[in-house]
Amino acid sequence: MDDRRLLLTSEEKDIKIEYFLKNKTFESGMITYENAVPELYSKEKLAFDHSLIILDGITRLRNKADYTDIVFNLMGEEFTLPDLQIVYEIVLGRKLYKKNFRDKIKDKLIKTGEEGRSIRGNRMSALYTYKRIWR
């Protein structure tokens, strides 16, 4: 996945917006994109600067995913590790090595003892829940 290309789609409303991000900068621990050029492929348009608001939200989510547990908020109560990895990869916009990913999140999970089917394949996988740690 190219992190300079952002594609937003809505099957229900037949909307497809594609951004080509021309200038990616990294400053003070934050990734920012300048010169985002939206190309709309639908009959409907987003009002005012809503497309920039969506882009800003996705950029913030992507930045926070590296140092917080925010991605767990996008998961159901129970999930498989392959499903969690897929969500992380979508948010971060890049593939993750399976072992490194599992090492990073292993202390944040509780195994339920149940099994469920992953969205990635037909094999059954162990189900987990997020271990909430209040500080």
- Uncertain regions spanning at least 5 consecutive residues: none
Secondary-structure element series: EEEHEHHEE
Helix content: 25-40%
Largest sheet: 3 strands, antiparallel
Structure description:
There is one protein chain. The chain is of the alpha+beta class. The chain folds into 2 domains: 5-65, no CATH class; 70-130, Winged helix-like DNA-binding domain superfamily/Winged helix DNA-binding domain (Arc Repressor Mutant, subunit A). It has 3 helices and 6 strands, in the order βββαβααββ. Strands 1-2-3 form a 3-stranded antiparallel sheet, covered by helices on one side. A 3-stranded antiparallel sheet has the order 4-6-5. A hairpin with a 2-residue loop joins strand 2 (15-27) and strand 3. It is globular. It starts with a strand and ends in a 5-residue tail after the last strand. The mean pLDDT is 78.
Structural features:
Arc Repressor Mutant, subunit A; three-stranded antiparallel beta sheet; 3 helices; 135 residues
Topology:
Blueprint: E1 5-10, E2 15-27, E3 30-40, H1 50-65, E4 79-80, H2 81-92, H3 98-105, E5 109-117, E6 124-130
Antiparallel strand pairs: 1-2, 2-3, 4-6, 5-6
Task: Give a concise summary.
The chain is α+β, with helices and mostly antiparallel strands and 135 residues long. The chain has two domains: 5-65, no CATH class; 70-130, Winged helix-like DNA-binding domain superfamily/Winged helix DNA-binding domain (Arc Repressor Mutant, subunit A), CATH 1.10.10.10.
